[in-house]
Amino acid sequence: MTSQSIARSKKPAPREESSLSDQISGSSMDRKIERPKWPLKRVAIYTGGVILLALLVYTLVFGDRSSRLNVQLERLTIVTIERGDFQEFIPVNGIVEPIRTIYLSPEVQGRVDTLFLEPGSMVSARDPILRLENANLRVNTMSQESQYLQQLTDLQNYRITIEQARLDMKTRLLDLDYQVNRSKREYEWNEQLYNQSAVSLEEYLITKEEFEYHIARRELLRENYRQDSLRHELDLEQNQETIRRIQLNLDMLRRTLENLVVRAPISGQLTSLDAEIGETKSIGQRLGQIDVLDGFKVRATIDEHYITRITLGLEADFDLAGELYTLAITKVYPEVQGGQFQVDLEFADKVPPDIRRGQTVRMRLALGNLSEAVLLARGGFYQATGGRWAYVVDPSNEVATRRTIELGRQNPLFFEVLDGLEPGERVITSSYDTFGDNDKLILK
């Protein structure tokens, strides 16, 4: 083979090389590199979002959305609900007073002339306390007494005149009886003589007429005497009534003068006397008072809220010197003044030996009978809730939850629980003023 043929036969070898490289180059440039469809980073982001969304939905649907407040446990008052005896009562204040008080007042107007006793003195019935002076009353009394005595004298004189007239009438009747009897004898004698023709007819008729005249006159005088007697009896009865009235008037005048001296109506202690010498006192004006020391009562003042529940016989008690004393309501004063009314209570059995007038006692007035109930101790929570709800502490002593409750009767120590709480549960009873409207309290 020639050199040219050898040269021609050797030329294709570089094309093969080139072709292989081209193939390699072409294959590497034409093939598409595929990327992963869900990169790990994207999967992690989506998974976290789904979990967060699920947590949010769970929290919204099933989570505890109640408001909370952290509080210090040592600042709270926590009590346990219990079952026990309950009695509704209210505290009332009373003033010790004598069981009976008599007020002094004058029955006549006058100027204080003399004071016989001082306040605080012990008196007996009818003891003089003071004397009033009324010069006009004395003068008028003396004048009227003189007039009444003159009328009494005139009436007595009239009575004497009536008696004299009656005696005169009886005397005249006696004379007529004598004349009738005498004329009768003459008439009967002349009648016999006339029948015997011893006297004339004229003489007989004269004696007859004279006899008949005396009889008629006597009957007339007797009738007049009867009429006068009836009139005189009526006049005497009227005189007796007039004299009786005059005597009553005189007695009244004398009593009026006696009433210038003010006397003790009963025995007791003259606890007050409002009178000074020279001071003028009017009728009915209060001068002082006398206390009967046979016993004591207590006059108490009660809020008008309870006026429909206060009745006679309700009992109250109070402690004095370590002993318990019981009283009962004996009188209720219906008048309300300043939102309050008053009652009187008397001791049911024993009376404190050292009790004094004007002493103040604090009593517990029972409004109902003793009964069993679920009890909640009183506390400051009531001002904020009105007894409609309270914070109940859970057994872990870490959380207190707001709960609706219902309270009934109450006394200064306890509320009666009607619903919402059970014996053994624990309730915060201190003030809720700083808790706001939070549903739960986290106890720290």
List keywords for this structure.
6-stranded mixed sheet, elongated, 6-stranded antiparallel β-barrel, conserved putative lor/sdh protein from methanococcus maripaludis s2 fold, alpha+beta, 444 residues, 6 helices, Elongation Factor Tu (Ef-tu), domain 3
Kindly describe this structure:
It is a single chain. The protein is an alpha+beta fold and 444 residues long. Among the domains are: 68-86 and 371-443, conserved putative lor/sdh protein from methanococcus maripaludis s2 fold, CATH 2.40.420.20; 90-94 and 291-366, Elongation Factor Tu (Ef-tu), domain 3 (Beta Barrel), CATH 2.40.30; 136-258. Helices cover 39% and strands 32% of the residues. The protein has helices at 3-10, 12-30, 40-62, 135-195, 201-258, 381-385; strands at 68-71, 78-80, 82-86, 89-104, 110-115, 122-123, 128-133, 261-263, 268-273, 280-281, 288-303, 315-320, 323-337, 340-347, 360-366, 371-377, 389-393, 399-404, 406-410, 414-419, 426-428, 440-443. The protein has a six-stranded mixed sheet, with no helix packed on it. The chain is elongated and about 200 Å long. The two termini are 111 Å apart.
Q: What's the SSE pattern?
A: HHHEEEEEEEHHEEEEEEEEEHEEEEEE
Tally of helical segments: 6
List the uncertain runs.
Answer: 1-29
The portion of residues assigned to helices is 25-40%
- Ends: how far apart? 111 Å
Largest sheet: 6 strands, mixed
Beta-strand fraction estimate: 25-35%
Number of strands: 22
Overall pLDDT: 84
Gross geometry: elongated
Widest sheet: strand ordering = 1-22-18-17-21-2
Computed Rg? 62 Å
- Structural class of the secondary structure composition? alpha+beta
